[in-house]
């Protein structure tokens, strides 16, 4: 790894943590107290059986909040980043799936969600692309954190730091 | 030596932290989900309160006309025909029903017109379940009551778990449907073939959304954005 990267790595890690963690925390927070919206949003993807979709709709916001907090404070960053990246990949796959099947929905990423009026098809399609690109960016942040989990202002310190103290 | 021991201890501590965090996260997610489910259940129960003073009418027999998109048909052979296309989850259909439901109810009960209800299900799984239950209710002569009760408790959000088998049976119980045959029909989805046929007939009749109304086969073209009773009544009289 170049020395330049070595110099800036803790800051890049911090930015990635704040980006991925911040988005997860906000997305979860907006949905956690509107469980019926969240359950309906997951069901609207028509991928899972309705009951299972509702259960995930109820649980997902809390998982997002928990991961968001862990990433922001920098505790078990690597684990949180792996799980965060995994759910981003699931989101991307789900959006591609509805797009390919021609279903018109609002992704429900930050609350609301559900069917979209057919007259707004063009807007829904451009929203799919934006959602995919955003989630892809966040998944890349998560991947970076897997390789470089230790950065500025994190509770967790790399092992060699502890040894040096 | 000391350094190595410290490292081992640190890595042990790290493992402990990891499991602690996994445990905490699991706890948060599980309790959050339970909190949400319980909250939704009690909210659903509250929404049923509106049905406490629901009054059922006399039973009205209907037929299901497979040739006419499996519509639920009342007073077949009456001079004037009113075709109504609705989806149980469509909020605008609810607006339409709140404005004109009483009038249509009277058309059916007083045998003033041949009214056909086409119960659609393009808004997702819960529309399918609710439409199936509507057909079950029609079999027992209680379509009008069930339909009215169903719109009274219609949830704001689609496919959010409200039109579950359990809740559909509960709506039925308020609408005078307590028989084993109704419960059985809702539970087993006995009318799903009719639901499917109704949905598939949309193209044939060129129905693109809900609610859609035809008077004697002619599309009702509203002048007003709302569903004003006067406009609906006038259109019916003129047809």
List the helices and strands and how they pair.
The complex is a heterodimer of chains A (165) and B (239).
Chain A: H1 3-32, H2 35-44, H3 50-73, H4 77-100, E1 105-106, E2 114-115, H5 121-147, H6 159-164
Antiparallel strand pairs in A: 1-2
Helix pairs in contact in A: 1-3, 1-5, 2-3, 3-4, 4-5
Chain B: H1 2-47, E1 63-65, E2 71-74, E3 81-86, H2 91-109, E4 114-119, H3 125-139, H4 143-152, H5 165-174, H6 180-188, H7 192-200, E5 212-215, E6 218-219, H8 229-238
Parallel strand pairs in B: 3-4
Antiparallel strand pairs in B: 1-2, 2-4, 3-5, 5-6
Helix pairs in contact in B: 2-4, 3-4, 3-5, 3-6, 3-7, 5-6
Flag low-confidence runs of chain A. none
Assembly annotation: heterodimer
| Annotation, overall tally of beta strands of chain B | 6
How many alpha or pi helices of chain B?
A: 8
**Average pLDDT of chain A, to the nearest integer?**
89
The number of strands of chain A is: 2
The radius of gyration over CA of chain B amounts to 25 Å
Low-pLDDT regions of chain B: 1-12
Shape label of chain A: elongated
Helix content of chain B: 40-55%
Output the structural class of chain A: mainly alpha
Largest sheet descriptor of chain A: 2 strands, antiparallel
Q: What are the main properties of this structure?
A:
heterodimer, A: about 160 residues, mainly alpha, two-stranded antiparallel ribbon, 2 strands, about 75% helix, about 0% strand, elongated, B: about 240 residues, alpha+beta, six-stranded mixed sheet, 8 helices, about 55% helix
